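The records we work with from here on pair a chain with its fold. Each token is a code from a learned vocabulary of local backbone shapes. A record is reproduced here so that you can trace the correspondence yourselves:

_____
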Amino acid sequence: MRTLKSHGKLEELTYELGRYQWEFVGLSEVRWTGIGEISTDEGHKIWFSGHDTSHQQGVAIIVRKEISNSVISCTPVSSRLIAIRVAASPMNLTIIQVYAPTSDYSDEEVEEFYEQLKEIIAKTPKKDMTIVLGDWNAKVGPDAYSIWPGTVGRFGWGDTNDRGQRLLEFAQKHQLTLAN
């Protein structure tokens, strides 16, 4: 599914999610405008953040109806970043959905994205478990394991590209581990 902008795509998504065991799902390239919160016909909640006027980019997090009341807060940052905080046991979760700029974008735009992400992480309570997920538009290959042990595992595809290198630097600095 490439976007939720087209008619019937949200229903298609919730139908497909019904086949899996899930609690929350991060979505990139939603292409909805504005920021907000909606409920699906099934009662699931979606928090989203997009451009003000254009149907480009956009991120969202859909939360299963049974746990949607556990969401403490939502922080929409841009059409590329959104975070929710969920009450959980033994610790709360902060879930950050990202949609990183592609290689078509300038290094300045990529740095702005990472600065915004850094701010979200800095504001996350230290006791929370932080999960950052989404489309990084980066390649991290098996070649990265020997250079970045503890930040990435042995398995990847192809060779690490410039955006992958930037992701690895960010992950190491913020004590994050890349997983697939």
